[in-house]
What does this fold into?
Amino acid sequence: MTYFAKTRKSAIGFALLACVACVAPAVTGCASKTAATDGEVALRLRAMQTRAFDTTDVNKAIRTAMATLQDLGFVVDNADAELGSVTASKLDR
It folds into this structure.
């Protein structure tokens, strides 16, 4: 085998190794990231589900929320004006 053939094989091997080194992190992901705990996931979910309205008429806000949910096809399960919460579920049709 000539010197040129040996050098070419090493260059191809090096190029292949460089490609694998560049692609491997993208395929396997970053190992340093930690998974979110159940509490953090629940907190993020609750933050997305919570809305604040700038009004002093709590009853009107509750009624409006209930009417909107019903318009969207939900059935209101529980509404509490003191707590300011409305829970609803959507029936499969």
About this structure: Confidence is low (pLDDT under 50) at residues 1-9.
